[in-house]
Design a protein that fits this description.
The complex is a heterodimer. By secondary structure, chain A is mostly beta strands. Chain A has strands at 4-7, 10-13, 19-25, 38-43, 50-54, 58-59, 67-72, 75-80, 89-95, 102-103, 107-111. In chain A, 0% of the residues lie in helices and 48% in strands. In chain B, a hairpin with a 2-residue loop joins strand 9 and strand 10 (103-107). Classes of the chains: A mainly beta, B mainly beta.
């Protein structure tokens, strides 16, 4: 199985400051169609997951532009340009290139 | 708007069976692949199963292969997950999700399955 490794697992941040989460996969997520199948999800306390980013860097509609994704191959990053109170929660990366599809362990973002 | 509503969860003894349902609305059900994803209490997300839009392809996590079966009723717009030979480690909230652009975009609110004697 493809192992997704996130870091850090806990991320205390100051309101208005940037934050960054890393996700590394044990195999390349590049597919023969030219797309790289790496997504990011946010799960606020008590809520269902919400997709923020698909195919590395494509933001879903309604997602604030302070969220951005980047990376290639096996190394990916989710950035929040200026953290707001509503960004508190757990963030997961997920690969959908290989079967079985797999999630990272999750990164808990909290306000300092 | 897209709506996914899971049901069928509950408390069940180890070794028994349960069938989860996910009622879909707001989109053409037969056009989209669908996933089940679960989350054990206080833990992270675990992908469980996926069916293609026409059920021609189905995939399962190693942990449920041979015990769980994903299916869909296109006449009722319902996605199912049949859970057999349940184990205590299957205790989790089970979410259904619609695949858009290669990954789960829309998620339901989840249904809780508790496996306990």
């Amino acid at each position: 199985d493809v192992v997704m490794t996130q870091s850090p697992l806990s991320l205390p941040v100051t309101l208005g400051q940037p934050a960054s989460i890393s996700c590394r996969s044990s195999q390349s997520l590049l597919y023969t169609d030219g797309n790289t199948y790496l997504s990011w999800f946010q799960q606020r306390p008590g809520q269902s997951p919400r997709r923020l980013i698909y195919k590395v860097s494509n933001r879903d509609s309604g997602v604030p532009d302070r969220f951005s994704g980047s990376g290639s191959g096996t190394d990916f990053t989710l950035r929040i340009s200026r953290v707001e109170a509503e960004d508190v929660g757990v963030y997961y990366c997920m690969q959908t290139r290989h079967w079985p599809q797999t999630f990272g362990q999750g990164t808990k973002v909290e306000i300092k | 708007q897209v709506q996914l509503v899971e049901s069928g969860g509950g408390v069940v003894q180890p070794g028994r069976s349960l069938r989860l349902s996910c009622a879909a609305s707001g989109f053409t059900f037969t056009d989209y692949a669908m996933h089940w994803v679960r989350q054990a209490p206080g833990k992270g997300l675990e992908w469980v199963a996926m069916t293609s839009y026409d059920e021609s392809s189905k995939y399962y996590a190693n942990s449920v292969e041979g015990r769980f079966t994903i299916s869909r009723d296109t006449s009722k717009n319902i996605l199912y997950l049949q859970l057999n030979s349940l184990r205590t480690e299957d205790t989790a909230i089970y979410y259904c999700a619609r695949v858009v652009n290669g990954s789960p975009k829309n998620w339901g609110q989840g249904t809780l399955v508790t496996v306990s004697s």
